[in-house]
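[stage:ingest] chain + small molecule (flavin-adenine dinucleotide)
[stage:ingest] validated
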Amino acid sequence: MKIPLYHYDIMKEREIQQPVDFNRHRRLKHTDKTFKAEISSITTLTDMEKLFHLRILDEAERERFTFLPGQFVMLEVPGYGEVPISISGSPSNKGLIELCIRKAGTVTGVLHKAKRGALVGIRGPFGTHFPLEKMKGYDILLIAGGLGLAPLRAPIFAVTENRPDYRKVDIMYGTKDPSQLLFDYQYEQWRRIDGVNLHIIVEKADDKWTGDVGLITKLFDKIEIVPHETYAIVCGPPVMFKFVCAYLSKIGVPMDRMFVSLERRMHCGMGKCCRCNIGSTYTCIDGPVFDYWTVMNLKEAI
Ligand SMILES: Cc1cc2nc3c(=O)[nH]c(=O)nc-3n(C[C@H](O)[C@H](O)[C@H](O)COP(=O)(O)OP(=O)(O)OC[C@H]3O[C@@H](n4cnc5c(N)ncnc54)[C@H](O)[C@@H]3O)c2cc1C
Ligand code: FES
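[stage:predict] done
[stage:export] tokens:
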């Protein structure tokens, strides 16, 4: 019998046994319908990130728009293009779509110059979500690095708004320096919730910083983790979630109880253009949320 050397070999064998479902995108609820929306407010968070509140213009469409934490929308700036952006607000906040956007290039650069009242297009929501239902009754670790707090904010809202459903909740957040911390106006609010602990660390302190300094994994020294009773959601750059998940895995948190969000270049967001695929896996419809076991088995995913 051939012994598979790499996870990828196992995956290849699985793919042969389980042929790819060519009709996946047909099952999407939302496809190429573009909702017209206006930017109803803009908050500057850091030099590079702004929080946009969007309101779908049509009242019936606005009422119907719902999403699950971890999902994203395709945001269109007419005349410039479309970009995938994670929904960063609370799923219970009907009517307003919150997007935290970093100025990265053409489309996001134009958005950063937009004023209140500007019109944009929204398609979606798309993609898989964090399985918060399965996580009920467990300790929850919500871990973000840098801009990763944008997608993590939706599950933070979902968990804190339904606090009795979960046991202990630890939010861990790390950035390069204090000037890059996002949503600092919410930290006190999160800290005040019973059973929720917020731990923040920066790689490089400034004169005013009195908190922890170092890499995010240093925060694990402060947290008591019961591995078999814990679910983790990790959002951030691949180099960060690799180290975080490797640590959690080492102490015994099962790999299928850790969830990460993968970012790939996307064009259609609905399984048609092949821009985002890793092998036969399309990040836009099979992801962006994957459990860590699946990510480890996807060749070149991280
Ligand atoms: C599922 C998903 C969710 C996302 N959520 C957010 C979010 O909540 N907030 C946010 O600010 N950004 C998010 N992004 C990233 C965002 O989509 C890109 O920054 C954006 O597409 C850049 O478009 P642009 O036209 O401004 O830049 P471009 O001019 O197209 O590119 C500028 C630079 O950014 C790089 N780049 C472009 N897209 C990506 C990408 N997907 N990953 C890594 N590098 C990229 C390019 O290689 C280039 O170097 C998300 C991406 C995905 C796939
Ligand atoms: S973005 Fe087009 S297939 Fe995923």
